Each structure stands twice: as structure tokens, then as C-alpha cells.
Amino acid sequence: MKKRILTGDRPTGKLHLGHYVGSLRNRVSLQNEYDTFLIIADIQALTTNWENPEQLASDVREVAKDYLAAGIDPNVTTILVQSMVPQIAELTIFYSMFVPVNVLRHNPTIKTEAAQKGYSELMYGFLGYPVSQAADITFCKAHLVPVGKDQAPHLELTRRIVRRFNELYGEVLVEPEGMYEGLLIGLDGNTKMSKSLDNAIYLADAPDEVLRKVKTAVTDPARIRKDDPGHPEVCTVFTYHNEFNKGFVGELETACRKGEIGCVECKTRLAARLNEMLDPIRERRAHYDAHPELVDDILQTGTARAIEVGAETLAQVKEAMKCNYFVAAGSVPPGRHRGRPLQGRS
Ligand code: TRP
Fold first, then answer.
1. Which residue from 92, 175, 165 is spatially nearest to 135, judged by alpha carbons?
2. Cα–Cα distance between 266 and 262 in angstroms, integer?
3. Which residues does residue 16 pair with via DSSP β-bridges, in sequence order?
4. Residue 148: beta bridge partners?
5. 42-65, pLDDT tens digit by residue?
6. How many CB atoms sit inside 10 A of residue 232's CB?
7. Which of 12, 226, 284, 328 is the most buried (most CB within 10 A)?
């Protein structure tokens, strides 16, 4: 049996190059080696967007299209929608019994996010979303979780929940390993490419949009004229070449330091390289844009499989937590009795 991967995203709009570098690229290359589950965490998106839920339906589909466009193969990877798998919500409740509130309060990613959003009070769902994320990861007993570094506190909590669960109730859950990728800097040189910082290039951006954005990227401020010597180590565009255009960086570094290549040319070459990389992604996206019914079908099929897998784990969890009152060994599962009176004792 293949080992399992579970990872995913909050649907808050289209995915960008930061998502691609941080995790999507990895998922595509690992999907044949691992039984991969990708979760579109729409409930987690609600923890910060509960006031505008009307965006969710289209955001869920945009993320699905980005996955498929980036090369996720729906025949080998299971894409699921979090809110449609009730077992995840149930597991969240069971785990919440033994997660101390203080551990959540001190979670650095929660703190950073709360500060960024300017929350003066924390909602129960927001504070608790790392517990729900533990349910996302454990419903399918994932072994490996490829994510950006900012997710480390959440994964550590998941590991802690698994260990505690197994210690309290018996070995049921699998403790997952994290696989961390670095963050991609934003066009403005900010440490993180992100939608909310408005410094992102989206996988779905058109070629001229990519060129326009690359032209706005922050470069070495000491370079005023084309033949001024450059400092690639402080240049955003150089960082991107280093990430996406490995074959060119040696030559570029020398030329930049000697002032032999101007920023305009350097940017034009980056945009060309990005567009070359994004072209097949755009092509696949166009196919799914033209056939939205395919996307819906993929999501429903993936979610159905997730429900099956989740039901098995939930049954084991309930049994371990002694909440399986009417499931005696060998008896008919309770659902089958629906519509018929339960057997009396007469
Ligand atoms: N918290 C992740 C993010 O903000 C999204 C996510 C939800 C996730 N559930 C997950 C990531 C499970 C990995 C595993 O990007």
C-alpha cells in the first residue's frame, strides 16, 4: 500500500506562484508515489471570511482549477471539499476534548494572522481551526504533509493530538511528518508572496499581466543606470531567476555584478521564463474553464472517496472513545435500521 499525503489550501481566491513553489509543485511530483489527498478547506476559509460567504462557491472552484491546471491528475489524486466530509467535523469535536485552549492561544501562526487581520477578539472557530486541521490530516491517516513553513505550528499540534489520542484511547491514528518548503518573496520584496499584500503573480495571470507585474518588481536600489554594478543578493528579480530559471543564474549573476545586463532586460527575460512555465498551466486551465461540469464532477468524486475513508477512521475513533453504543461486533451498523423500529427486548 502506498503511503498517504494530505495537504490543501484555504479557498480565498486564485493560487499564485508562492503556492506553486511552497507546495503545489511538490504535490504534482509526488502524486504518483503517494496516495495523495488535496483538501479545499472551505470551512477554514470561513473562519476569516464568515462575513462574505458568497465568495466561497467560486473560490472553491478556482482552487480546484488551479490544482488541475498545475498538473494534479484527478485519476490519481483525491481532491475533496472540507465542508462536504462530515467525518472531519466530527473528528474535530472529538479531538477538541483534549486540546488545551492555551496551546491554541500561543500558536504563532494564529497570533500573526489575528494581528494581520486586526482581530480584537478571537472567534471560537478561528482559534480552533488548527484542531480542525488536525482532523483534515488524520481522517485519511496521512503520513506526509507538504506545506509552507508557516504551517509548522499547525502540524506540530496535529502530531501532539495524535500522540495524545493514541496514549489515551489506543493506537488508532497515524502521526504525520511535515515536509516544509520555503516561502517565495513578493514582487515588493516582502518576505511572503500573498494575496492580501497585493504582491503576487497568479497562475492564471495572462502573459502581458505577468510582464507588467514583473516590471514593477523591486530591484537593487543602488542601481540607477544600466551599467551600475548590481547586487543580486538584494534583488527580488534575481531571487525569482534563482527559483524559476536556474540555468541562467550563473551567467546573470556575473553580468549583473559587472553592470553588463540592465534591470529591464533581466525582467524581460524573467517574464519570458515565467510565461514559458505558465503556458501549459494556462492551457489546462482554459480546458477546465470551458468545462466547469468536469471540475464539479472531480470534486464530487473525490469527496465521495474521502467520505468513505473518513467513515472508517471515525468509526475507529468512536470505538476507541467508547461512543459506539449500538455497534456490537458482527451486528448491523446503526444506519441500516433507519425506517424500521429497533429490536425491542420483549
Ligand atoms: N492552513 C492551510 C493554509 O492556510 C490550509 C489547510 C487546511 C491545510 N487544512 C490543511 C494544509 C491540512 C495542510 C493540511 O494554507
1. 92
2. 6
3. 202
4. 181
5. 999 999 999 999 999 999 999 999
6. 20
7. 12
